[in-house]
């Protein structure tokens, strides 16, 4: 398995359980590791043979701008499912953090892994 990665992507979304968080978008920072097979792309040199990270970023920015999540865990699950189901990843690691939420703490967040390394996972 090969890994395509996107590090420190900043995305604006409504995230949180408090009224102020539900009213005003926040910037979250995410890093993604996307498991796939890149052999075909390595041979063909064709973007159609791999996961296009520019399309991933564009899709995430558009979808998350229109959503609200109470918890980072739910947001991470949403991102993982999108990568597995819509982009054909076989495995993902999603790290998402809120920035500057508490005095003296730079970031708080969650890291999840979904899928089986080397096996395609479909949602049920």
Automatic annotation (TrEMBL):
Pfam families: FolB. Residues 4-114 form the Dihydroneopterin aldolase/epimerase domain. InterPro entries: Dihydroneopterin_aldolase (IPR006156), FolB_dom (IPR006157), GTP-CH-I_C/QueF (IPR043133). The keyword Isomerase applies. Its EC number is 4.1.2.25, 5.1.99.8. One of its GO terms (cellular component) is cytoplasm. GO terms for molecular function: dihydroneopterin aldolase activity; isomerase activity. Coiled coil: none annotated. Pathway: Cofactor biosynthesis; tetrahydrofolate biosynthesis; 2-amino-4-hydroxy-6-hydroxymethyl-7,8-dihydropteridine diphosphate from 7,8-dihydroneopterin triphosphate: step 3/4. Keywords: Folate biosynthesis, Isomerase, Lyase. The keyword Signal does not apply. It catalyses: 7,8-dihydroneopterin = 7,8-dihydromonapterin; 7,8-dihydroneopterin = 6-hydroxymethyl-7,8-dihydropterin + glycolaldehyde. One of its GO terms (biological process) is folic acid biosynthetic process. Belongs to the DHNA family. This is Dihydroneopterin aldolase. It comes from Candidatus Propionivibrio dominans.
